[in-house]
Amino acid sequence: MFDYEQVQIQRGARSGFPIIVAIHSTALGPAVGGCRLWRYPDWRDGLTDALRLAKGMTLKNAAAKLAHGGGKTVIALPPGTVLDDATRRAALLDVGELVETFDGQYATGPDVGTSSEDMGVLGEVTKQVFCRPEQLGGSGDPAAYTAAGVRAALDAVCRLWSDAAGGEKTPESPVVRGRSVTVIGLGHVGAHLASGLARDGARLTVTDIDPSRRAFAEQLGATWCEPEAAPTLEADLLVPAALGGMLTAELVPALCCRAIVGPANNQLAEDGVAALLHERGIRWVPDYLASAGGVTYAVARELHGAGLDEAQRRVHAIGTVTEELLRTADRLGIHPHEAAMRRVADQLAQGGR
Ligand code: PHE
After folding, report:
1. Residue of minimum CA distance from atom 1 in ligand 1
2. From ligand 1's centre to the CA of 61, what distance in Å?
3. What is the CA radius of gyration of the chain?
4. What is the pLDDT of residue 7?
5. Cα–chain center distance at 63
6. Which residues pair with 76 in a beta bridge?
7. What residue's CA is closest to ligand 1, atom 3?
8. Helices (H), ranges, 32-115
9. Cβ(298) to ligand 1 under 6 A?
10. Could you tell me the distance, in angstroms and rounded to a whole number, from the CA of residue 122 to the centre of ligand 1?
11. Pairing of strands 106-107, 180-184
12. Ligand 1 pocket, 120 CB below 6 A?
């Protein structure tokens, strides 16, 4: 079923690259979703990615209780493209102009392959952009807040385990202390997360497709492992922080973790994998909830006039929502994805315009 409100595909007038904006839904308010700059074997793969990511943003914004729908932009670079500064700038201006044509029904922000500085460039041609650098009036790089949201969700999972074990409550000691955690991907968000987890005494194993990130792992005192081995390591928590699609039906039987909580968008290769994880007793906190910290922060600061403390409080609330979601799922005997989808469906039905 085609359930998108609008999809625009354009050859960038300046850059010549295919630029795709997919708007999945504006039922809860104007769509918000980042701009991905990535290489794809074919531009149609970029379109597929944009469609899935836009839908993911509808779920994310609703799960985070934001009055926004979901959309996404993809700049689909041909394989092997290396961007010089001028071409990058051209592509970003192309995006800005396209975003501007949606009359405020879509605003973008940073995503894989784009930065706060890049949003500053978009800002030269459109107001519909979040996370420009602070000196340009934006809320800056959201990666630390995305990481904080994931951490809040992860802590919620650990708290439920401690409760179930009837453990002593020692609020001064981080709940992740002594837990084994595997972080897959040390990009913007993954690096923030890994640092915090190392600081708070988690037993950390990390990996990245870029072998030079091993130096960072050593700085953290984390164990390094090869990317192929990481998903099936024995661990309390698995943290997907790289590209999506990692959780396949084939992988599920080989997993050796108790829960999966991470910021990568679209972690499930297909929806049915959520049920397979549930059958194996592995808790999957839906990626669209765990990763909502960045957009929550940006919207709070830039649209709601929230100060730093209030914006951080809202990011932290992802932990409470996660806890409620997991408890509801347990009570109903369904998996967290199902419980979250039911809630989002209710929200969309009520907010439907
Ligand atoms: N890339 C962010 C995400 O996937 C989207 C985002 C949009 C972040 C706007 C901040 C602001 O959630």
Report:
1. 111
2. 10
3. 20
4. 98
5. 12
6. 38
7. 34
8. 43-63, 85-100
9. yes
10. 15
11. unpaired
12. no
Q: What angle do CA 279, 61, 190 make, to 5 degrees?
A: 70
Cβ–ligand 1 distance for 109 under 6 Å, the answer: yes
Residue 169 in this model has a pLDDT that exceeds 90: no
Q: Which residue type occupies 99?
A: V
pLDDT reading at 51 higher than 90: yes
Task: Tell me which residue of 51, 62, 33 sits closest to 348, measured CA to CA.
Answer: 62
Nearest to 296 by CA among 62, 58, 66: 66
Distance of CA 196 to the CA centre of its chain: 17
How far is it, in rounded angstroms, from Cα 26 to Cα 7?
13
The chain-wide mean pLDDT, for the chain, equals 95
At residue 348 the predicted structure's pLDDT band, cuts being 50, 70 and 90, is: confident
Q: Which member of 55, 60, 65, 72 is catalytic?
A: 72
**Quick check: CB of 114 below 6 Å from ligand 1?**
no
* Residue whose CB lies within 8 A of the most ligand 1 atoms, among 66, 111, 129, 318, for a mutation test: 111
What integer pLDDT is reported at residue 165 of this predicted model? 82
What value does the mean pLDDT take over residues 92-112? 97
Are the C-beta atoms of 206 and 222 separated by less than 8 Å?
Answer: yes
Query: What integer pLDDT is reported at residue 162 of this predicted model?
Result: 86
CA of 118 to the centre of ligand 1 (A): 13
| Euclidean distance between CA atoms 142 and 111, whole angstroms | 10
309 Cα: distance to centroid of ligand 1 (angstroms):
20
pTM: 0.95
Joined together, the tokens standing for residue 60 give: 């994310």
For residue 36, report the distance from its CA to the centre of ligand 1, in Å: 10
Mean pLDDT on 283-310: 97
Total residues belonging to the chain: 353
Q: What is the DSSP string of 117-174?
A: HHHHHHTTT-S-B----GGGTS----HHHHHHHHHHHHHHHHHHHHHHTT----TTS-
| pLDDT band per the 50, 70, 90 thresholds, residue 172 | low
Known catalytic membership, residue 169: no
Task: With a cut of 70, say whether residue 80 has pLDDT above it.
Answer: yes
Closest CA to 193 of 237, 149, 160, 255: 149
If you search the block for the tokens 């009837």, which residue do you land on?
166
